UniProtKB/TrEMBL annotation:
Domain Peptidase S33 tripeptidyl aminopeptidase-like C-terminal: 403-502
Entry protein name: Pimeloyl-ACP methyl ester carboxylesterase
Family in the record: Belongs to the peptidase S33 family.
Organism: Saccharothrix tamanrassetensis
Keyword flag Signal: yes
């Protein structure tokens, strides 16, 4: 899904052509490119590995390189861009199996340093066998980044409580799309998931590897699934954690966020009520939830001043959405709701560092370089409904059962005003082996999305983490069962004999 740092991580995923059913067949476009041979200079390029100029990567002994790729794969002799990659070499060269590519999600997540975090969750056996490869996808981070000069961070907003709030968002999203078209119009059609998958295959070839293994979170599961469809003979061991249903990538993916976030809000409200002595937000879950809903209405009537920022009903649900992706963040969320409530009551105080970071990411200078790259991929991959009234009708229908998040999950984005995609979406249907890991309470990529991806990839196994409202499991949320399954698969290629369910260690 999408990663919005402290405040927001949303999920997303993208495009291609059906090349076969049952078994994986090479995507026709990719087969045509291979026959032309016009890409050989990219696959055969020599990579110049050097220090990364990144404190943590350099301290870990990583190396970085820039990989040259065509902006437009249909014009391989045309304009080029670069994709930044990092490498943490296998701990035991004698046992090395190959490379493991990765993606942290988003889209829009810079992944150059992702494997620094994930490697700590890998068994010594796995670390011995793989060069771990981080990558900033095209248009993101160090990889020829998109820069539309937005005045805000991500494009995602709640529609608020009434038509006035929705109309504000419509105007904002139209302006954001216009800015990108004016500044980056010639590049935008090529900042897509399909092209990132092609870039991954160029990285594979330039590193002299026949196949790749892969680990991806959230949107990274969609990217990984698209790669298996486009380059089926190049896949080795793929782990797709917190998956997106390829058929719902786009608006349907966002709409499915509403229900699990309402459920997670109830769990948080129960936790907060048990800690009323600290946060004073209510002694029952019903009181806590009612206070949150009233806070949103109050921010619509009178926007809340918090430090240098003004917060209204378009923002408050987003502030809730971020921490709800992990139950360990419940204290953080309770503290921020207390801060916003105090500010609404006129008890102004400088925001905590955590709330300041969240506000700066949404509204502050420089935040645009995360948001516009994310939009380029989300909007460039699939078609979106263009009529604002259709979004408004969905929002209104959702309010009864999703009073906090319906106006966010069903809201309009800049994609409604974007140019139509250059390629058709990828239909994922193959039998490539993969391990899919999904928590039942995932608030970013709903559990049914993992089930759907498992059905689309008939050679996969599904590992369910039961009754945990967390997004991103392996490498993020401690669980002995899921860690053992993932490490076993990466180490020796053994998938579970059947789908399995893991219990939360914390229970």
């Amino acid at each position: 899904m999408i990663r919005l740092k402290t405040t927001l991580t949303a999920a997303a995923v993208a495009a291609g052509l059906l090349a076969g059913t049952g078994s994986a067949a090479a995507d026709p476009v990719e087969a045509e490119s291979a026959q032309r041979g016009g890409l050989s200079r990219y696959y055969d390029q020599r990579l110049d590995w050097a220090a990364c100029g990144h404190e943590q990567l350099d301290a870990a002994g990583a190396q970085c390189a820039n990989v040259t790729v065509p902006l437009d794969y249909q014009r391989p002799r045309g304009r080029t861009i670069t994709v930044a990659v990092s490498r943490l070499k296998a701990a035991d060269p004698a046992r090395r199996r190959g490379i493991m590519l990765s993606n942290p999600g988003g889209p829009g997540g810079a992944g150059l340093d992702m494997m620094l975090r994930v490697q700590g969750w890998m068994s010594p056996d796995v670390r011995a066998r793989y060069d771990l490869i981080g990558m900033d996808p095209r248009g993101i981070g160090r990889s020829s980044p998109v820069d539309c000069k937005w005045s805000v961070g991500p494009m995602l907003r709640s529609a608020g409580v009434d038509r006035a709030g929705f109309d504000r968002v419509v105007a904002l999203e139209s302006d954001l799309a216009k800015r990108c078209a004016e500044r980056e119009g010639d590049r935008l059609p090529h900042i897509t998931t399909r092209n990132t998958a092609r870039d991954m295959d160029v990285v594979r070839g330039a590193m002299g590897e026949q196949r790749v293994s892969y680990f991806g979170w959230s949107y990274g599961t969609y990217l990984g699934a698209v790669y298996t469809q486009m380059f089926p003979q190049r896949t080795d061991r793929f782990v797709l954690d917190s998956a997106v249903d390829p058929r719902k990538y786009g608006l349907g993916m966002f709409q499915d966020l509403g229900a699990p976030n309402e459920a997670a809000l109830d769990l948080w409200a129960e936790w907060t009520a048990r800690h009323d002595a600290e946060y004073h937000l209510g002694t029952t879950a019903k009181q806590v939830r009612a206070g949150v809903e009233e806070l949103i209405r109050r921010s619509a009537r009178t926007p809340i001043r918090v430090g240098d920022y003004t917060v209204d009903d378009n923002f408050v649900p987003i502030a809730l959405f971020g921490p709800l992706s992990d139950p360990r963040a419940y204290p953080l969320l309770a503290g921020q709701v207390r801060e916003l409530t105090d500010a609404a009551d006129g008890k102004g105080a400088p925001p905590s560092p955590e709330l300041e970071q969240a506000l700066r990411f949404m509204f502050g200078p420089g935040a645009h370089q995360d948001g516009d790259g994310q939009a380029a991929v989300l909007c460039g991959d699939v078609r979106y409904q263009r009529d604002p009234e259709s979004y408004w009708r969905d929002i209104q229908r959702s309010r009864a059962t999703q009073p906090v998040f319906g106006a966010f999950a069903n809201n309009i984005t800049a994609c409604a005003f974007w140019a139509q995609p250059k390629e058709r979406p990828t239909v994922v249907h193959n039998n490539r082996p993969a391990l899919i890991v999904q928590a039942t309470g995932d608030t970013r990529t709903a559990y049914q999305h993992g089930v759907a991806l498992h059905k689309a990839m008939t050679g996969s196994r599904l590992v369910t983490l039961k009754d945990v409202p967390v997004h991103a499991v392996f490498g993020n949320y401690p669980n002995t069962c899921t860690e053992n399954v993932v490490n076993t698969y990466f180490a020796d290629g053994t998938l579970p004999a059947r789908d399995l369910t893991c219990q939360d260690d914390a229970r």
